[in-house]
What we know:
Layout (H helix, E strand, L loop, with lengths): L7 E3 L4 E4 L10 E4 L2 H9 L6 H15 L3 H8 L6 H11 L4 H26 L5 E4 L14 H10 L5 E5 L6 H13 L3 E4 L4 H6 L5 E4 L3 E3 L4 E4 L2 H10 L4 E4 L5 E2 L31 E4 L6 E4 L2 E4 L2 H10 L1
Parallel strand pairs: 4-5, 4-7, 5-6, 7-10, 8-11, 10-13
Antiparallel strand pairs: 1-2, 2-3, 8-9, 9-12, 13-14
Helix pairs in contact: 1-2, 1-3, 2-3, 2-4, 2-5, 4-5, 5-6
Amino acid sequence: MKDFRAAVAWTGDAIEIIDQTLLPGEERILTLRTPDEVVDAIRRLAVRGAPAIGVAGALGVVLAGDDAAAIERIASARPTAVNLRWAVERVLGAADRRAEALRILEEDVEACRAIGEHGRAELEHARRVLTVCNTGRLATAGRGTALGVVYAKAEAGEPVEVFACETRPLLQGARLTAWELQDAGIPVTVLADGAAPALLARGDIDVVIAGCDRVAANGDIANKIGTYALAIAAHHHGVPFYVAGPRSTLDLATASGAEIEIEQRSADEVATAAGARVWNPAFDVTPAELITALITDVGVLRAPLGPAIANALTS
Length: 315
């Protein structure tokens, strides 16, 4: 994989991010120097993806200094992804906050590499990959989680192509996944979210790989809206459904998916007739029984997922 600019980086006194609201038309770098700029970037999805917003939040604590109110605004900027509050609290508990924030960034880069390698070994014979949302270098400090597996396969010389659901309502798949895969020279086909079951029915997909914003203690996962439907369709058609994410996304404090707070986005993000009401959840929950395995930086976790997750976090 060729060199790329990181989605989130530290300059020494500020955070630099790629403004993902402008892609694919323009690749603009934003410099964040204040906690409120960090909060705004996270909320409007200028920086997005659970690992990436965790890193941004960790670095945001450094910018906030001793301003407890600003730190809480960062931690609560988006509620579903566990990485954000996890990273903020980890930095708060460190004697050297700057060093700890940079350690979180470096760990995410390494986690992405390890996820890619574990996934490549697990899916050696899978060539046609279906995914949802964006889980690559734009969603992490490294090269990605679910797409990290794709990049690892490409680097190993294994044939691989991606079918990317466009992802409603902000088109992260059509705008971001397609952009970064084309940039990496990996074949990509974009499809409407509702077309995914028909594609699976044709037998044209070897594996589905999704990312995750939170994994509950029992193995239920929260991910971008549409993931649950994709898992149901994959199960019906006998296609393996994998979820990829770093160990930091595993949350023993949340017993099941029913306890995960699901972020509701603005109605303005969904085009509608005047006066019509809008229900616009950013995420949905996929139950553990629909998941073939979790691909993490510490290995592939298999059913029963609850004990496997507990062991991964305590070993």
